[in-house]
């Protein structure tokens, strides 16, 4: 996602090695610049030539490093606030192709059925090959109500979808109370205030009823601010490493502080192929510290960190500066996180026969005498009817609660069971996903 409000890196760690500017080699650039200015078939202004040269330097580094001119940077800031005009897709630009990480819930892309893994080859007939992420951003975004046609490849099928741009509202955190006092918490992206909102949602549910466990849904969460993911992990971890970042000659570790918002209650984390970047940091931190059980599908596998640096004359560059490593020291770059319990994207209807095979559903069954009245039907089954992974998460969480398999060490959590709410992060290490 685009970084939130504070996206300027005040200083980068000093790097060792050869950092001198190669003035002699730059004479080649000056010579080529002069030849183009003098002899190119069409007139071209200096600013365009310089901007193209800058883009060329960054686009050849990796899929996530890019240059943003002043207008693109302005749009970038707007998107970081979670409100923008577009079609609602999160994309990964790699090796000249544009792949869908996920479609934002209730967006035009989601309503049209665009799926994780779809390859978008053209927009309005224009090829996206070898474009930078900021250039693609300009093509996808536009005025509300305007149309755009995407050419999509899904497996061996090539087809077109016409979408109308809308104002996209990205809500970072939502929650509900499930059966047996289990909390369901969904995080769609990591913004500056995500950890604060997670704490508020948990505390709000705890006011209604003491919680017995948590289902943390990180599916189709394309990432966001690394600081925010670290703060969110710290809410549920009493100790241990959360993540480490390593640059060329720089390393920093982020460790959990004492206190657990749930006081050791069991957690199940839902992940899938759309779980990327900062959300993978959170999932790995909880899984590898034995604080949660992960179920679902293998995650996306984005293990790099981008830093945004504003430029003196306007605009900014987004540069890959670090790789991140899970508590076990593993990089998930291009490999992802493997869930402890793999579950495909099935629906409960495919398993419904087993649910209906009980005495009370048989024709002409005998009525019970002195039977205990069944409890009112909860929202669990109606929610799970469309989400088999969630249904299984509830079953697993119930078993975990009964067997008490996840029991962290004694904590120093305050008596009210809550961890102090994190302050909005003033940190400078950001991860990045691209919203369009």
UniProtKB/TrEMBL annotation:
SMART domains for the chain: PDZ (SM00228), TSPc (SM00245)
Superkingdom of origin organism: Bacteria
One record GO biological process: proteolysis
Matches recorded under Gene3D superfamilies: 2-enoyl-CoA Hydratase, Chain A, domain 1, 2.30.42.10, 3.30.750.44
SUPFAM superfamilies, per the entry: ClpP/crotonase, PDZ domain-like
InterPro entries: ClpP/crotonase-like_dom_sf (IPR029045), CtpA/B_N (IPR055210), PDZ (IPR001478), PDZ_sf (IPR036034), Peptidase_S41A (IPR004447), Tail-specific_protease (IPR005151)
Chain spans, region Disordered: 409-436
Keywords: Hydrolase, Protease, Serine protease
Protein name: Carboxyl-terminal protease family protein
Lineage: Bacteria, Pseudomonadati, Pseudomonadota, Gammaproteobacteria, Cardiobacteriales
